[in-house]
Structures are given as C-alpha cells and as structure tokens.
Amino acid sequence: MAIIVQKFGGTSVADAEKIRQAAKRVASAADKSHNVVVVASARGRQTDKLIADALELNPNPPEREMDQLLSTGEIQTVSLFAMALAAMGYEAISFTGGQIRMLTDSAHTKARIKSIDSQRIHKHLAQNKIVLIAGFQGIDENENITTLGRGGSDTTAVALAAALGAVECEIYTDVDGIYTADPRIFKTAAKMELISYDEMLEMASLGAGVMHTRAVEFGKNYDVKIHVRSSMAENKGTIITHEVSQMEGVVVSGATVQKDMAKIGLVGVDNKPGNAARIFANLAAAKVVVNDIMQTEVSAEKANLSFTMGISDLQPAKKAVERIKADIDYDKIFVRDDIAEVSVVGIGMRTHYGVADRMFGALAKARINIDSITTSEIRISCIVDKDQADEALRAVSTAFELDKPAHERIKNT
Amino acid sequence: MAIIVQKFGGTSVADAEKIRQAAKRVASAADKSHNVVVVASARGRQTDKLIADALELNPNPPEREMDQLLSTGEIQTVSLFAMALAAMGYEAISFTGGQIRMLTDSAHTKARIKSIDSQRIHKHLAQNKIVLIAGFQGIDENENITTLGRGGSDTTAVALAAALGAVECEIYTDVDGIYTADPRIFKTAAKMELISYDEMLEMASLGAGVMHTRAVEFGKNYDVKIHVRSSMAENKGTIITHEVSQMEGVVVSGATVQKDMAKIGLVGVDNKPGNAARIFANLAAAKVVVNDIMQTEVSAEKANLSFTMGISDLQPAKKAVERIKADIDYDKIFVRDDIAEVSVVGIGMRTHYGVADRMFGALAKARINIDSITTSEIRISCIVDKDQADEALRAVSTAFELDKPAHERIKNT
Questions:
Q1: pLDDT level of residue A287 (50, 70, 90 thresholds)
Q2: Taking the mean position of all CA atoms in its chain, how far away is CA B47?
Q3: At which of A123, A142, A174 does a domain end?
C-alpha cells in the first residue's frame, strides 16, 4: 500500500474541534487505501506558553532542559490525535521522537536528523494502523531529547516521508498554497501549482514563510514530493518537486520582499588577500547571519565591500567590524537600517535573458531607487528604501504578470 | 555521599513561585552534602486538564494513548524544576521515566515497576549534579510509555530510594504529617512522629489519603525510611518505618472513617462448598473491589454472607450477585447504601486486649448502633450509619486518647 505522510501545524490542531477536522482528513486518506503517517506540531500557542513558563524560572534556561520541556507539546498533540481517530473507529498509535529512534546530533534547540529507525513504523503500518509521530523532536546518542528548531515539524515530516518511501508529504497549514507574491501586498498574486525545490529554497530564505528551508532541502536531497495545502479547504495546494520541463518556460515564478534588513558598507578596504575572510570570520564569531555580500574594486589597492543582514544582527555586526578596523584598514563604515530587499525567483532565468532589464525598468517606472543589486543563478535581488518596499513588490509582480497562473505566462515570455 | 530522595506533589510545584520554593528545599539538602534525587508530579491541575482534553475527543480513550498523554505533565515539571535550580547556580539534569529505564509491565494506567537502571542516575550524582526524575511513569519492554496509576509519583520516589540505596525518601505534601485521625472531623487529632508500614497500609487503604498504598508497600518490602512532611514548613513530619519497640506500647495508633461505602447481604445462602468462591469470582469478573467479607452460619445448611464495597461498585455488584441466584440458591438479598466504616489501627493490638471492648463501649455511649464488625490482626472496624460517621470517629478517637502524642498514651494503656 502506498504510504502518505500528513503534517498538521499548530493552528490546524489548536483545539478539540480542529483536531477532529484534521483526523477526518487522515481518515479520508486511510479510506482511500493509503497507509497514513501523521506528524503534528504542538497545539496552538502551547509552545509559547511553555517558553514563558521556562523564562519565568530562568531567563537563560539550559538548552537540554528546554528541549526536554518543549518536546512535550508535540507528544500531547499526537496522543490526543490518536484518541480522536480511535473515537472514529480507526486504529491509531502515537510515538515520541525517541520511540521511533529519530536520532539527531546533540545540538540542543537546533539539532539535525542523522537517522530514523523506520522498522517500528512499518510494523504498525503493516497492521493497518495509522501511525502518529510527534514532530520537532529527536534523541541524541545518549537518549537526551533534542529539538530541531524553527520549522522542525516540517523537517520531521519530510524526513519521515524520505525514510518510509512515501509517495507524498502533505503539509497542512492555514494558507492554501504558495503564492507568486505575498497576497497581503500584491492582492492579485496567483497560487502556484508547482514550484521547484530550488525556487522554494530561494523564496523561503527570502522570507516567504510557508515552509522552512531545512525541510525543503531535505525534500530536495531525497526527492520527496511536498504538497503544501490548506487544512480548511479541499482543493489542491502547491506541489514542491524536482524540476519539470514546463517550469523552464516560466521566467519568473515568484517575487518576494524581505523587510527588517540592514546593510553595512565598508569604504576603501585595503584590497589584500585574506581581508574578506577575516571580516566574515569575525562576523561568524559574533553569530551574525550574513545574507548578501557585494564587493567592487575602486582601485588597484582599494575595494568597497558591503553586506546585508537581519536588522537584529546589525549592532553585533557593527561592533565586530569596528573591532578589526586596525587589521583591515578601511577608510570608513556606513550603516543603513532602513532598507528592504525585493527579489524575483525562477529557474527559467537560467535560459532566458532580459529579466534584470525588465525588473530594473519596472522599479524605475515606479520611481524606486535601487541601492544595490545581487544575483544568483535563479534570483535577482534589489535593495530599496524600506518605505518603498511594498510598492516595489507590486511593480515587479505586475511587470512579470504574477497575477496570472504559470501556464498563461509561458506563452508570453 | 548519602543519597536522599525528595518527592514534590502537584500542589508543591503548582506555579513558578512554588517550584522556586521547592528548589530551595532541594538546594538546602544539596548544601548539606547530600546527593539529591528529586521526583515531581505534574503541576497543579495539569493532569486534570489533560484528562479533560482527552475526554473531549474520546469518552473512552485508549489507555496506551492516555499514558503517552499524561506522562508529559511530569516531564514538564522536572525540566522546569531543573531550570529553577540552574538559575540558583546548581547543576541539575532531568529525566523521563524512559530515560532512566523505569521498566514496568504493560498494564497501562496502572503499571507495576519491574526494574530501574540506576547506573545513569549514579553517574550524574557522581558528577555532583542534582538529578530530577519525572514521577508516575515508566516504559514497558516495547518502549511504550506506561503510568503507575493513582499515587504513582510516591511509588516512583520510594522505588528510586530503594534502587539507589537512599538514606531517606522525603514526601513533600500540603499536610505536615500523618494524624491519629482526620483533623477536619476530630479537631484535636495529634500528629504522629512514627508509624509502622503495616499501620500506614491499614490507614491508607481505609481512606487516610496522604500516601498511596502501593508506595507504602514498596517501602515495606525494601525497608525505605519514608518521611511525610509539609513543603511549606520546616518542622519534621511523620516517619513511616519498620516496627520499633516503642510502637508496641501504643494500643491504637490511629482511627479512620470511610464513607461512600455500601454493603450487600445475602440471607440464607446454601452452605455448600464452592459457593463463596463462585460469588467472589463473579464479583471480580464485574471488577468490583470488595472491602470486607462477613459470613455467619445460621443452620447446618444455610449461612448469611455479606460484604462491603465502594458505593460506585454497588450496582455492578448487585447485578453480578443476582445473575447467579439460581446457582447459589440464597433466600433473599438486601442492600445498604447509607453506611460508613469506622476503624482503629495499631500494631499494639497484637499484644494488648480490651481494644474491641473499649471501641464498642465508646460507640454505645455515643448511642451509635453497630451494623457489623470485622477485624484484622492490627485493626478493628465497625460498620455504622453514615449520618453518624463523624460522631463515631470522634467517640472512638476520644476513647483512645488520640488527641495526645503517642509517648503520653503509652503510660495510660
């Protein structure tokens, strides 16, 4: 029998009624002769509550104990979910991460999955049971409980789908799929039917917060078909999959905007070997996550170097750079905390030209100044003023007709 | 270093402030060069909340899933407790029942402990850490989570004290010890300094709800010194221990009253071999817990048989007995649901006489009618009218001077 993994996020299991709704989804898949494996997150705001309880006792709680505490939220959901299924006449059994040997490294609060013992799950599926797995958690080699960090339950679901050879991993959430652009800003954004892992990774890391990067990476590495869909509606959502030829006909699949960003520019950096390495080693030591790096030579000896980061990392980044001024010998430092990054993403860019042109033209027409530009193989990003961010997204989305479904856009490019 | 086990019940860890108070107790024991092992229950009404959540989804939830669900309450407490200790500068580490291999049978919701792997605990104690263990839970051979039933955390604590060779198992609770009688009824009841396991077992099963029977049995079997004391006050509580000679000088250690009882009498039972066995096999099959059994011969062929039970078992018991009327051939059945049982308990009864006399005299003087009488080696119980139950306890308590401490009563008997 084909195995299907269904993952339900916190809002989809927030109360008894929602758990019952989710259980009906599961039952319906089971009725269609699927072996169903369910992954669930903690109910509603349970995790936030537990974190608040912890901080009340210790503003800096030991990470091992934090993992031990937070893992209980997901365990509660899956046992309650199993009870709901039992009440509907289905045989169901729930497991903690430890019980199915979801082995991780020992990096508490952000552990990485090393292996899964799928035997126990297969055994119960073979007995026609619905198997429920607490998301977000694992154990290390010494049986300490670990958690996988943000988006951890998505990662659990995709990893299980890979380990079990599932035909599909359904991610049930409160949106009905992935949109070409944020519909709160670009109201006529279209829902995508398909998106490639690489595009989704660019979109996810750029702030389109439906799926966490790590889960998508897992899906890409193990070729898991991921279906993002609504827990409220029956219609199909968006499939995240490997590249298919029809995707290449579309130049731009989606556009994103990332606010709460900052930029540091170093003017007149001594252009000697090892300087850039020294700067970024220092930033890494200060735990600053650098987004984009731009460097331009201004003379044979001097270069201008700038980089962007989340705004919360700005102060530590600034200190880190000032600390090594003597070594690096730059002329001056400037800081911007009022920027946003607008990007277009699409694997079709690899084979089409004119994308940058069209993007810059659209921004120019909307009288939006471009501070700086970075690109990857399937992405072009422009830094713009923060107060023009929404307008920039709309201008770019309109220029690439992101209000139309992908198949209509193919003809036009 | 001497090991001490400290157990904190739900009310003693109900909120952050109470957890901090409990942590101070633990820290104070650690400062006195003890290796401290802490066992804790779920916070306040957490378990009740989880049960309500479960029943909302399934009025008859599968027991395995119920155990999986309820085990999370205790895990939350011990991880939070460890954080509180860390905030005070103490190294602490928490474990689930599974993590320390608290192996039980597979009788979900009422599992029995088979073994404990104390190595992991000893290892961390040797590193001078405070070790916290989630109470009430274990795992079976297949790593299913089990729970130990009512009073389970007490059992966890006493079992750990036995396995680790602890010098004492302290049970912190909201009362400051065990009293000669329920102080809500007999206001001048005295707190006991010492009580033997056997007396405590009689008292516990008769409704003096401080300690659960199973934990006391464990203590008796492994000779664990149990100290029941208040989490609010510094003074000593009551020590439950093996018999010491001074106990024998006291005829009656305590008195109890058990309400919510019922009695079924079978008049004119055919007195042939196997009839009693058949009756009680039928009651066991109906899951009726029988308290006391009284039988008297009324002729060579006929006997009167009666037995008591909790009032919630009355209807199933009545049905079970009526079902086999043809086999047993009794004349008639009568039922009382308005009774209570008043008992006096004391190991001194073994060597003293006149106890029954004094008890019956006290009841007669208070104009309380005795329906029936049962005795064990260290207990005398009288069934009385329920509406005279409190008065009966007071009369008996006064007769045996239970308002005085034990050492004063020794002289008087």
A1: confident
A2: 19
A3: A174
